[in-house]
Each structure stands twice: as structure tokens, then as C-alpha cells.
Amino acid sequence: MSVGGGGAKRDPRFVPDEVVPTEDGRRLRIRWADGTASEYWPRDLRLVCPCAGCVDEMTGERTLDPTRVRPDVHPTAIHYVGRYALQFVWSDGHSTGFYTWEYLRELADPDAADEPPGGSG
Ligand SMILES: [Zn+2]
């Protein structure tokens, strides 16, 4: 179950320039190497945690109950996982989810997943 390709060149749509809080401090902003910026509500990110504790590995079904996630949940720390993902340490103690850049980009910008790379207008 691996992604094909494996070229050395990284798609700028999935390469982060910076990961910072927004001016009001309420959201997380990722600026991408292609010049786009995506913003995320912390709780939304918590709800889509891709780890085995939140998603059934066999069925792919989400097992996390949104009603058990506090409205004020927020990351207390954010770690880079190599060059491919972010790991959030959540205020509810959860920290096992690795959010790949592709995953984060597609959350904010679902079209990015469909467009063939290198397309220009
Ligand atoms: Zn999780």
C-alpha cells in the first residue's frame, strides 16, 4: 500500500514554507511552497486525526466520537515528523496522529488532490 512514483522532486503544493498561528491565534495557518495558504480550526484537525485510535484500520471507518472532543481542544505542541508530516500534541492528551502534508493540503483544498501536477492555466 505505497504511493507510486517516488521521484526526488517534491510537489510544491505539499511542501510547507511555514506553520504558524493566525493573527488572532485561533487557527493554524500553513503557507505552502506554491504560494497558497491554508487555515485550520484546531478542533477540525483533532476530529480528522488519522491515527489507528481514531480510525478503524480494517474498515477505514472513523471511530472517534466527535461529541467526546472538547470544543476548546487545541494543540499544546506541534512536532515535525521527518519531512513528511506534522504531529500534534493535543490538549486532551492525544498525540498519536501523523498528519502528512498531503493530508493537510487535501483537507483545506480538496481539489488539490485531483488536479494533475504541473498543470498551468
Ligand atoms: Zn487519533
Describe the overall structure.
It contains three helices and six strands, in the order βββαβββαα. A hairpin with a 3-residue loop joins β4 (75-81) and β5. The chain starts with 15 loop residues before the first strand and ends in a 7-residue tail after the last helix. Strands 1-2-3 form a three-stranded antiparallel β-sheet. It has helices spanning 42-47, 101-108, 111-114; strands spanning 16-21, 28-32, 37-40, 75-81, 85-90, 98-100. Helices cover 15% and strands 26% of the residues. The protein has a single domain (12-110), classed as NE0471 N-terminal domain-like. It is globular and about 35 Å long. It is of the alpha+beta class and 121 residues long. The model has no long low-confidence stretch (mean pLDDT 89). It binds zinc ion (ZN). Zinc ion is lined by residues 49, 51, 53-54, 94, 96-97.
Report a brief summary of the structure.
By secondary structure, this protein is an alpha+beta fold.
Annotation keywords:
26% strand; 6 strands; alpha+beta; globular; 3-stranded antiparallel sheet; NE0471 N-terminal domain-like
- Give the strand line-up of the largest sheet: 1-2-3
Unreliable stretches (pLDDT < 50, length at least 5) are: none
The small-molecule ligands in this entry are: zinc ion
Mean of the pLDDT scores?
A: 89
Would you list the SSEs in sequence order as H and E? EEEHEEEHH
Structural class: alpha+beta
C-alpha geometry: globular
Question: How many helices in DSSP terms?
Answer: 3
CATH class: Alpha Beta
- Rounded radius of gyration (Å): 15 Å
CATH topology: NE0471 N-terminal domain-like
What summary fits the major beta sheet?
3 strands, antiparallel
**Considering DSSP H and I runs of 4 or more, what fraction of the residues is helical?**
10-25%
The total number of structural domains is: 1
Strand content: 25-35%
Give the N-terminus to C-terminus distance in angstroms: 33 Å
Number of beta strands: 6
User: From the 3D coordinates, which CATH architecture would you assign?
Assistant: 2-Layer Sandwich
